Amino acid sequence: MAAIFQSLGRTILAGFVILAILLLAAGNLGAVSSNHAWWAFVMRWLHVMAGVMWIGLLWYFNFVQIPSMPKIPDEQKPAIGKVIAPTALFWFRWAALATVVTGLLVASMNGYIDLALKLQRPFLAIGIGMWLALLMAFNVWFIIWPNQKKALGIVAVEAEEKAAAARMAMLTSRFNTMLSVPMLFCMVAQQNGGL
Ligand code: HEM
Prior knowledge:
By secondary structure, the protein is an all-alpha fold.
């Protein structure tokens, strides 16, 4: 068991193996593989996993890292700035992209992407959720990440510009945290009677 848990890759693989065993035990695997609705469901599951990774890290930044920074002695701050934050930002921005791609595929596989993006009545909840999440993903890639590169020293800039970039990244991250509340409501509302 320890051999599995000492490796993150093997741990995640073990999760997939347990899922496969559960599906086999439920007698649910063979009959479904050619079924479009089942593949749309698989995409929905991948979408939720990517979304959890994205919003989980967004909330980590806002609930844990940002409030902890002032309490960390200056000589220890590089551990966050040079090691933890770059790794967290790597998974954060690629999870955001994966969430967008899988989310758009879910809407497309279910045949309502156009109606949802045009905010048509029966797809209003998911349409609003999609637009909120698209705005958030735009912020991640085009505001937070470029500013974080300056703030963390990945791109060299003057001290003043570095401080301004850190503030901009923080405020945009807060803006996304605010939007995550109605966005997640809309995501789960579609299956449950809409708005
Ligand atoms: C641009 C980004 C996104 C797009 C295009 C998108 C699209 C969708 C679509 C089309 C659905 C299916 C709605 C339905 O028919 O019930 C859905 C459901 C869902 N999404 Fe997203 N989404 C995005 C971002 C997110 C994010 C960031 C999260 C965070 C966790 C998330 C979590 C969920 C959840 C939990 C569901 C409900 C699944 C269910 O009820 O079975 N989505 N999303």
